[in-house]
Prior knowledge:
Layout: E1 6-7, E2 9-16, H1 20-30, E3 33-35, E4 44-45, H2 50-64, H3 82-126, H4 134-138, E5 144-151, E6 165-170, E7 175-182, H5 183-195, E8 199-200, H6 211-242, H7 245-261, E9 266-268, E10 271-278, H8 280-292, E11 297-300, E12 312-313, H9 318-321, H10 324-328, H11 341-355, H12 359-372, H13 382-396, H14 417-445, H15 449-472, H16 477-494, H17 499-522, H18 524-546, H19 548-583
Antiparallel strand pairs: 1-12, 2-10, 2-11, 3-10, 4-9, 5-7, 5-8, 6-7, 9-10
Helix pairs in contact: 1-8, 2-3, 2-7, 3-6, 3-7, 11-13, 11-18, 11-19, 12-13, 14-15, 14-17, 14-18, 15-16, 16-17, 18-19
Amino acid sequence: xxxxxxxxxxxxxxxxxxxxxxxxxxxxxxxxxxxxxxxxxxxxxxxxxxxxxxxxxxxxxxxxxxxxxxxxxxxxxxxxxxxxxxxxxxxxxxxxxxxxxxxxxxxxxxxxxxxxxxxxxxxxxxxxxxxxxxxxxxxxxxxxxxxxxxxxxxxxxxxxxxxxxxxxxxxxxxxxxxxxxxxxxxxxxxxxxxxxxxxxxxxxxxxxxxxxxxxxxxxxxxxxxxxxxxxxxxxxxxxxxxxxxxxxxxxxxxxxxxxxxxxxxxxxxxxxxxxxxxxxxxxxxxxxxxxxxxxxxxxxxxxxxxxxxxxxxxxxxxxxxxxxxxxxxxxxxxxxxxxxxxxxxxxxxxxxxxxxxxxxxxxxxxxxxxxxxxxxxxxxxxxxxxxxxxxxxxxxxxxxxxxxxxxxxxxxxxxxxxxxxxxxxxxxxxxxxxxxxxxxxxxxxxxxxxxxxxxxxxxxxxxxxxxxxxxxxxxxxxxxxxxxxxxxxxxxxxxxxxxxxxxxxxxxxxxxxxxxxxxxxxxxxxxxxxxxxxxxxxxxxxxxxxxxxxxxxxxxxxxxxxxxxxxxxxxxxxxxxxxxxxxxxxxxxxxxxxxxxxxxxxxxxxxxxxxxx
Length: 613
């Protein structure tokens, strides 16, 4: 664990053109490489026009993508340049399309008809009211016409002109309208339904007779179409297997990945140069993978080229890593900035637990964090926060809002509200003072510690003078005055001699100092929420007592659930606010550049989708 981000290392990988794809997949497999191309005077882009080559594939995918099999990742990385791999894959797809064109047309036609019958089947299932003979309606004319529409369940009131007869058939997921009337009126009603985004469903002539007869005829048609679909699908699968379409699609997905992430690779002659950033551990992983995959290339780690800005990574143990999210809300800490994750790992649970002190509710948070943290890692923060809430629950003597189960090891918040408010203010002052000291540490890393001691140290002295009044009385304010004069005089020297610089420093210093005092008092909200939690728990228990012996446990259960849901969310927001806007602003500007590893190609995605860069 370090208190500052770690810089990544520059690497250069030189390989043969035909091994470029294997080299890139090797680098992506390490999970610890970010590509960044550095233009050289004599270098040329070695894979020009990849996106243009893939445009031909996009045209084929628009026509046949719905009937292609899922892409299949190549068992071995294909050899050859990306252009050659794309050409070979396209040749397979075009040969397939030549053989499968007629079968695809039949398949699409049958699938379209089958979808229409599925809508009719849904209508018959939803139509609980009596139905007319739909077959007779289908052949109505030339004066009368009919329509069947499907609208969303929240379509609202639909009014038909007086000349039309409309029957509604509401269902759970749709509203069906059966409309009969003069041809001219039906045509006008079509425009109204188009504006309402209604789906028109055609009624075939063979759907005749009573409901039972119509349903039987529909089932027979559906069975026949399903058999035709299955036969056409089997023919398409056989053709896809013969032309190795899945493998071609997998290769094209890899080429799409290269066109997205590495289209500007440079080289000269028969060689390609891949450059970028990696971590210390990533460098060893890359070297190992290159050897294991027998890629013909050489990797080296020269000094960072002039003018390049290395991306940064945070190095924290697993228990602390979950708290990196707080710093990342602002961005990546710069290379001369503190990574506050280890400090937040202590501060955030303390603030949360103080505001949410209850043994039983804290235990629920721990269980929720353990259960949900696997799916949503950010929720694993609930585990340490819940543990601290349990600790404060013992200190406050609260178990599932009941204050009669265990005696408090410290106090009942409702009984001693002033103490409950004062303690977090003192804690907040300590946190803010620590933030000012972290600013001094960053000044040391930047080589500006002398400038910090000359000016900003006075700001810290002034703040300590205010805090000292709690113990020494108003006389300690003299220290505040000395500190502010120190700050103003120092700024006048550091920022360039002159009264103008001193005046600007005085204005800035007073404003910043008042803001610091307000931020200190802002931590009183921690005590206020602790009191609110205790008061809400008291109200829940009072309502439970009034509900009688059986109702007591029901009200207590519902009340605790509401406290967990509503107040837990509010306490989490307040904890985040105090850390970001009271603590971090003292030292964190988030000027760093985060390290973004090259992702592996996702063969499961359609190759027509462009991955984010």
